[in-house]
Amino acid sequence: MKKLFLIFASIGMMLTYTSPLYAQEDTESYKYTEAQQAVMDNMSQMEQKYLEYGLNAPVVSDTKGPSGRAAIGSWTWRDGVICVTTDGFGTESVNTWHAAIVAPQDAYAVVEAPKAGQPVRLRYNQWYSSTHTIWQIGVKSTTEAQDYNAGLWAGRQVGKPYNMNFWNSYQTNSFYCSQLVWAAYYYTAGVNLNKSDNDIGSAIAIHPGEFVDNSKTAIIYRNK
Q1: pTM for the full predicted model
Q2: Rg of the chain's alpha carbons, rounded to an integer?
Q3: Disulfide-capable partner of 182 in 35, 91, 140, 206 (CB 3.0 to 4.6 Å)?
Q4: Residues 66-107: pLDDT tens digits?
């Protein structure tokens, strides 16, 4: 029987780390540009928009994979499925959310870029939270094989360092959580799940909520 556990950081851990989505290499002295500050100032409104959509959008059947593997509204371990939660590893001032992707490297595992100072890693077992919303997201246009390849690609990034720059998303030497998920589909299937909500010119930034409120995806699981 699978061992189930809470995979989210404790509040104490959250207060220890600066925001993994928005932190810079020198968080004490870094000053946002005017454009970056404007994105930051609007972040709470964007997160509220993502949340409202995610709470009210329909939960649909996952049509990919073996029959019965993902009944409507149930958690699935189909490779390539995107996992999103409002429970991030940030600070009280910035709710970072969090994203990961189911990967075939091991059973009952997702790949995630957890937080500043920690490398990309596998995490095991279903996500649970009594206080935060959790979704699983399917990409509409891809095949099951393409989803598998996206999960496989993400799993191959295990061990790479955390990307501290929210707007440095195209490079693949380091990752923040939603960048890793975005890159998995962008570099394997050519599917761009970025909505440009937080971009600055050609410098793209991907928030986990963009996977939830996205015309290219469908919600196949929600915990509440």
Answers
A1: 0.84
A2: 16
A3: 206
A4: 654 445 678 999 999 999 999 986 544 444 799 999 999 999
